[in-house]
Inverse folding.
């Protein structure tokens, strides 16, 4: 598994395509959503966590699509499948890879978010970190599985968000609500139930992905 | 009175169900026809 | 040069006409019973049951609105079971059950949401609220609509079967989490509508009877539609087999 992960990372480091896509899409979404709200209004501050997560999700969905499409073009998947590796392991490796890419993209997006919404830097970072980490794991888990699924359809770009997002409802709701509470200054304990939910979601989809990936890639 | 809504709700259900049933019947007939055509084609091939 | 599939479909009598005749009797009985019960339900709703004192005549929508949910959730339960069984056993019958249930479940879900919305407008003053139950149902609707779309857009029907089974399973597993999330979400913000449907106000026993008749008759309608749809699905599968055999035929001469 480490080998596969390493392979993904090395390819990415050389080409940086996925990373830059994720990054730019995240920033772009943030920008456009900022236009949606009147800078002076209170609504804007209240909407901040929502905006952040829309940007994160949007970028993740598209970035994920790109990376698997890229893979398909290079036909790496076939090569991988020929090797005697457990399919579930391939899934886990890919998910971890995707998670790393998304996290890397967020390193730029989150500061932009802080700047655009005029939030206190240090506190925000610290408070949001656990939610971001947990949320991204969930997005990576469900995204990797359904990106592979959507590759096997005729309308790839459309299928991925359609597949992922309704199922990711708990993740979206929990992340936004928890982020909102944390940004408002509440302690981590207060959002424990949301964190549990996201955690449960992560575990559930990592397991589902691990078990069903082989069915997705079979010929 | 809100009778308009009452009528609308039941109309929606009835129309929905009937459209589906007729659609299904049509699909079924088309399929049966196609299967029959293909069967004939296949049996001719075999001869 | 005999392709077993070709042989099966060109032998006469082919197995299907026999099935069809028997199936037809049971189906007809079911259909007639369903029709009778649904008519009885309509009578109950419009003639038998008294008008609600609070909501007026519009309240009668309640009976048919509630009757939409039993089929919806039964259908989705069937999809879940069919998905699991298909991934486990790969029987084509499970696949047929999956797509038939999903289609009909989606129909009833749509009708449920529509009737609910039409009822809500005069009673609550709004077409939609983010009530936990409504939100949950809407998400569910999306998942199963995507299930059907996935089948349509898959490269091959076999793949469509597998992929949608995965989605079907994921959907049902996710259900609990979606439920929790949505209820907690609406718990935090004040409810738009202070007092939800007058479901508690079924004072008159005639109302209860009417409700039961509606629930039973529309559930039977669901079963009947499912049976019909399964038959069409079987036809689709046969057609697919024949087509494949045809495509193989000319080239598989000496195999």
């Amino acid at each position: 598994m480490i080998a596969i992960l390493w392979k993904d990372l090395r390819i990415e480091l050389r080409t940086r395509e996925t990373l830059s896509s994720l990054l730019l899409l995240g920033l772009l979404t943030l920008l456009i959503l900022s236009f949606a709200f009147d800078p002076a209004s209170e609504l804007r501050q209240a909407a901040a966590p929502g905006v952040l997560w829309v940007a994160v999700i949007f970028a993740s969905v598209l970035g994920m699509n790109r990376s698997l499409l890229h893979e398909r073009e290079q036909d790496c998947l076939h090569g991988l499948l020929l090797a005697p590796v457990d399919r579930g392991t391939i899934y886990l490796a890919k998910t971890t890879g995707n998670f790393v890419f998304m996290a890397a993209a967020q390193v730029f997006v989150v500061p932009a978010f802080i700047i655009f919404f005029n939030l206190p830097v240090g506190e925000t970072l610290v408070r949001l970190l656990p939610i971001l980490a947990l949320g991204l794991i969930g997005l990576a888990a469900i995204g990797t599985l359904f990106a592979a699924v959507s590759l096997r359809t005729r309308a790839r770009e459309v299928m991925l968000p359609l597949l992922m997002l309704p199922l990711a409802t708990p993740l979206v709701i929990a992340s936004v609500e928890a982020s909102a509470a944390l940004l408002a200054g509440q302690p981590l304990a207060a959002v424990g139930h949301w964190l549990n939910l996201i955690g449960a979601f992560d575990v559930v989809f990592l397991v589902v992905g691990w078990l069903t990936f082989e069915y997705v890639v079979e010929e | 009175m809100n009778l308009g809504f009452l009528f609308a709700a039941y109309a929606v259900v009835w129309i929905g169900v009937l459209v589906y049933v007729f659609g299904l019947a049509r699909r079924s007939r088309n399929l049966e026809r196609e299967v029959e055509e293909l069967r004939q084609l296949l049996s001719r091939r075999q001869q | 040069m005999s392709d077993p599939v070709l042989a099966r479909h060109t032998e006469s009598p082919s197995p299907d006409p026999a099935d069809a005749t028997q199936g037809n009797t049971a189906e007809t009985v079911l259909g007639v019973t369903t029709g009778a019960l649904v008519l009885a339900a309509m009578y109950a709703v419009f003639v038998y049951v008294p008008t609600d004192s609070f909501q007026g005549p519009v309240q009668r929508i309640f009976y048919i609105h509630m009757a939409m949910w039993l089929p919806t959730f039964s259908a989705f339960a069937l999809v879940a079971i069919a998905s699991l069984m298909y991934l486990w056993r790969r029987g084509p019958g499970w696949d047929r059950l999956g797509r038939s249930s999903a289609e009909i479940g989606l129909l009833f879900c749509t009708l449920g949401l529509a009737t609910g919305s039409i009822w809500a407008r005069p009673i609550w003053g709004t077409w939609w609220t983010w009530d936990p139950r409504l939100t949950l149902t809407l998400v569910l609707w999306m998942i199963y609509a995507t299930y059907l779309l996935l089948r349509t857009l898959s490269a091959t029907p076999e793949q469509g079967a597998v992929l949608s089974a995965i989605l079907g399973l994921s959907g049902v597993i996710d259900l609990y989490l979606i439920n929790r999330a949505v209820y907690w979400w609406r718990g935090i913000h004040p409810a738009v509508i202070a007092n939800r449907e007058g479901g508690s106000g079924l004072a008159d026993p005639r109302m209860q009877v009417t409700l039961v008749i509606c629930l039973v008759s529309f559930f039977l309608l669901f079963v009947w539609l499912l049976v019909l749809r399964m038959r069409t699905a079987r036809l689709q599968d046969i057609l697919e087999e024949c087509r494949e055999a045809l495509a193989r035929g000319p080239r598989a001469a000496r195999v």
